[in-house]
Every structure is written in C-alpha cells, then in structure tokens.
Predict the 3D structure of the following.
Amino acid sequence: MHSMINIFDKNKFWGLAIPVDPAHLATVRSCVVMAPHPDDESLGCAGLIATLVARGAKVNVILTTDGSRSHPNSLKFPPAVLATLRLTEMNQAIALLGLQTQHLRYYEAQDASMPSKGMPGFEDLLVRLTADLIDLQPDLILVPYELDPHCDHRATYQLLISALERANINRPKIWEYPIWLYEHAGEDDIPDLEEGELLVLNISAYAALKEHCIHTHQSQTTRLIDDDPKGFMLLPEVIENFTRGREYFMERKRINPEGTLHRNYFDQMYQENNDPWNFETSAYERDKYAATIAAIPQGKYAHGLELGCSIGVLTGMLATQCDHLLSVDISETAIEHARQRMAGSTNVDFLVGAIPQDFPSGKFDLIIMSEVGYYLSAEDLVTVKDHIVNAMHKDAILVLVHWTHFVADYPLTGDEVHHLFSTAGLSQVSASRTADYRLDVYRKP
C-alpha cells in the first residue's frame, strides 16, 4: 500500500464504539477468522482470538491468499519462497495465540489479485469455503470490512457472504474488522454506521501478546527482505492503529438483522419490481408450489389462512382447496396485485397486516406459512407460532415452506423457523427438503 491523503477521522470513528457485551462472548463456541493475508489476523483480531481461546471456544483461521506479492522485485524471495515464509510466520503467530497448525486453512489465491465475485477462480474458492463453514459450524465470523480499501479484503468479504448463502448452517454473527480503512479510505469507503454497530473490545490483558504476534510477521514489519526497496512494510504509525489495547469490530445490522423486517423493506421491494421474488416466472417457485399443494392432505378445508400471500400466485392454488381462504400480507401493493389476480373469486378475502401484531382472529382448518417466518425476529416468531397453534381447530393442518439458505437481510434461516415449530406440540404429517427449501406438514392433535 502506498501513502495517499486519508480523509477518514479515526478518532471520531473510535469514539462511536460501545463495549463488546461479555455475555455474548461467553456464548461463542466456534469462531472463524477470515484473513486475506498473513498478518491481518494479528493486526485486526489477535486480542479477540486470545480472549476466545482463553474461554474455551474453538477458533479456526482461513487464509484466503498466499501473501506472495508484498515484495515483487525481490530475487532472494521470489513468490513461492515468500509465500512459504509468510505462511511460516502466520503459523508462528497463531501458535502464540494458542492455536495449532490444523486450525489454519490455506486457500492460496494469488496475493493482490484474489478473484472477486463473478471472476474466474471465485467458484473454486466458494466451494471450498462452503464446505469449511459446514464443517466448522461457526457462531461468530470475523471478516475484513466490506469496503476495506484493498482488493483482497473486499474479495474475502464477498467470498464469505456467497458461501453463507450456500452453506445451510445456523446464522452466525458477522463482525467486520478494519485494516486499511484507517489509512487509505476514500469517501465511498467510509462506513455509515448506526448507533451501536461499532463495538470495542478491551484487550489490554493481551496487548503485549498481540504486539508479539504482529512482529512475528518479520517479512512485513522489518527489512528482512532487503533487495526490494519498494517492497511493502508495515510502518510504525500503521501498526499503532492496532496496538492501543483495544480492538474494533462492526456488527452492522444490514448483515446481522435481529428485528422483524419493517413494512418499508417490502414497500421498497415492490416499488422496484412488481414481482420481486419472481413468483410468476421462476421454475423454483413453480415446482415448490406444486410440492406444497401435493403435500396438503386431501380434502376440502372450510377455513384456510395464508400468511404472506404476496401477489397471490399460490393463493389461486390454495383457493381450490378451501371453502373460504383469508390471505394476509404486509404490503398493500402486493395485496392489490393479488386482488386483481383473484378478481371474480368469491371465496378469498385479503387482509393487509403485519404479523404478529395483525394476526387475524378466528379458527382455521388449514394454515399455510410459505417463505415468511425468516422475516421475523426470534421473539416475534415465537409469538406467531403461539398464534398459529391457538388458531388451529382440532385436526387442523399447518404447512410450512421456507428457503433454507442464508440471506443477509433476514433475521432467521428457514431451518431455524422449522426447528421452532417442531417444538410446538403438533403431530408431523410429512417432512421433505430439497437443496433449496424444506416443507413440513403438521396436524393439531
């Protein structure tokens, strides 16, 4: 990295931070650290790693690049030799933190040109990280800030989000750590954080250990490589950003949502596209709808309830199963499209409302909640679950269908939704899952 004018006010940024909740750290059982280069783990989060290891958490580090290009003009340390040296330094650093060689996974993307999303080579990295996330089952992931001013840092963030979308694991917390934001931020790189999104961890107990880890990377902190005067070096003023006895992490709500998604979220989706999830044209939706209808036990249902009808594609199919169907959605725009679609139908009524607060009164013989539950906070989903169970007649049927992949915007995953309902005291009629969704049918005893 070459020097440039920095417009980022570090002190103002640091002043926004609130302390990490010790109670949350106590819940971390498995942490994955995404490090683009050997030394990023020591600079950005050595203190947190040491803290978690001391608490008995499992910590694994994933190094995405080979670190081979920091001294491109060195004859003594050509790329392959430099990559070996830097990997050795990193193993020494993590050993100081209480980790062993098996806790480091090494992807070997080329330093300074790691493929970003859509580029050749990205898919191979994605397959590998997806498998590692399934293996490690992290509940906390540390990754460079999305717009940290280095191409490998940004590509590592993109790789993580893409892998989470495939991995079908319980939703982890994602903490972003800044590295080059402090020195090279442009106007568009600076995070626009809400109150409470910047966290600070006091690592004074591990301050000396962290400095030792940083300086273990001698190829980056000294002139060990002396035949490339233009080669990279971590200058003392850069290292000082990370040796203040504190570490800073961003827990942005955009990728760590906890609250139920607001009506405005859906209004914006429908303003941009009348069919934002391609319900009318998607082969996935067509096949899923057919499976949903096929899974409903045969018979005619007097009173049906559809939670989250959107533009009414599934509504039309459900209407043939019910003497009367009440379809609910949070979006007035979506409901208007659904009404138009069902014009002339006499057995369907629509209600604009948000659950749980607008859950309709009455009793039902059939309730369908398709692709809705993960929009809710964990607390609101419990309330909705209770409302659903209370609204079911004896022998009533509940059908749950949800996409099972990670979506950055959603507070929960589909699997988390279905797991909650498995504890609701209902009898399971059938259960199935594909690579993308799961479908569970319950009966009230």
Summary: The chain is about 35% helix and 20% strand. The CA atoms of residues 71 and 230 lie 7 Å apart.
